[in-house]
Every structure is written in C-alpha cells, then in structure tokens.
Amino acid sequence: MSRPLIGVTTSKRSGWRIFPLVALNVWLAGGKAVRWGAGRPADVSSIDGLIIGGGDDISPDLYGGEVVASARLDPARDALERRLVGEAQEQNKPVLGICRGSQMINIALGGTLDQDAYATYSDSRYYRTVLPRKTVRVLPDTRLIEHTGADPMKVNALHSQAVNKLGEGLRVAARDSGGMIQAIERVSDPFALGVQWHPEHLFYARRQRALFRALVAAAKAGKKSENQIEAAGQAA
User: Fold this and answer.
1) d(CA 51, CA 81)
2) Is the backbone of residue 171 left (phi > 0), alpha (psi -120 to 50) or beta?
3) What architecture is domain 5-235?
C-alpha cells in the first residue's frame, strides 16, 4: 500500500519553517504530507488524514470569547480549519491537532476556550519554550495512553489559552501538573486527537513520534477499508 496522504494546515507567518518538521514526522510514521493553508486548495476527499497545525490565535467570535488586543488572528484560516474538521468527521478521516489545532478541533465540535488559562490554573507552571520542560500526565482509559504509555511526559509549551468546555464527543486525555487540559480525544471513531504541545519539535522522543504513528495508522486503516469497498463494488 502506498503511503497515506496527510493534509497539514499551517500559519501564513510560520508555516514555511514548521511544515518541514511536521512533514518529517509524518514521513517517519509512514505517511506523506501535503501543505494546506488559507487560499490554497483543500479537499478532504483527496487525503487520508488531517493535521491541524499550530500558530495564530483562534478568533473568539467562534466560541463567544472576548477580543484580546495582543491576539494574532487569521479569520480565513479559522474558516478553513473549522470546515476541514467537520468534513473529516463526516468522511471518517482521522485528525491530529497540534496546539492551536487541538483548540480548533474542540471549537469545531462545539467547545470553548479558556483565554487566560494560566490565571485559571494558577498551579500550572508557565513555560514558553520548544524544549520539553512541562510535565504532562496522560489519563487512564484513554486512546492516548495506548500510544504513549502511562508514565508522565515532558513536553514543550507555547500557549496561553487552553480547552475549556469540551466539544461534542470529546474527552480529556491529559492534564499538566496544575490540572490544565493538555490533550483531548474523540471518544469514538473516527480518530481525533488534539495535543496542546508541539510534538513536531520533539521528533527525537519515541512517545512523541507515536502521536504521528497513531494518525498514520488510522489513515492506513481507513484507506484500506475504502479500497476494499471499492473493490467489492467493482466485483458486484
């Protein structure tokens, strides 16, 4: 079977340097990445899996939040990614959300964000670094723990917002030491996982590469199923 094709959304500002990292992780996991962004063609039916990447803040208009003067917004990207998450769910395509991407999965499914998460979770240590300094604990009885194991993980952190009210069909998969939500996942198929950190920067860590392997494995399974259905239709 050929490598499953994974669509990857990126920021106009930082996509040029982030996409190669994400593409490397996807390739190591057995897939092939194609870059998407606002103003570019983006057809979910043409891919086998989807990654909603990091960078930029999500407009609070999407979830009833307050406008923050320091926010870096991209309404066109918001609209694109919200559509893609919905279409991926409708077409049973797996999705991995990275930082902003995790938040977008939640919002697209009807959830909200905490715009000042470190004020809400005062026991959560504030980090802003691509180095693995924040401790994250994966919750039991989650899909995430099947891929990463139960031991605490050291991850990076570049966010100030976090998931608040969960979207439909989602559950918390990991929290930091102060209780802040650090990962969410869909309870049932199709596969959807969102992590608040940036695993693309941690490609040297086996458990971070496992996140991309999980997505690619789900994409391969979906592709195989589609091929079987198509073959059965041709034989009928």
Assistant:
1) 10
2) beta
3) 3-Layer(aba) Sandwich (3.40)
Residue 87 annotated among the catalytic residues of the structure: no
The residue behind tokens 């990076």 is: 156
Domain ranges of the chain: 5-235
Structure tokens at 64: 């009833």
Of the residues 81, 147, 185, 198, which is catalytic? 198
**Terminal Cα distance for the chain, rounded:** 23
Answer yes or no: 230 catalytic.
Answer: no
Task: Give the helix ranges, DSSP H, for the chain.
Answer: 15-28, 75-90, 100-108, 117-120, 143-148, 206-235
Residues 190-200 have pLDDT tens digits of 999 999 999 99
Instruction: Check 147, 185, 200, 201 and give the catalytic one.
Output: 200
Please give the structure tokens belonging to residue 187. 């309870």
Active-site annotation holds for 200: yes
Which pLDDT tens digit goes with each residue over 127-172? Answer: 999 999 999 999 999 999 999 999 999 999 999 999 999 999 999 9
Q: What is the DSSP string of 122-143?
A: TTSPP--EEEEEEEEEEPSSSH
pTM: 0.95
Q: How far apart are CA 153 and CA 132, in angstroms?
A: 9
Which residue among the candidates 81, 99, 185, 201 is catalytic per the annotation? 99
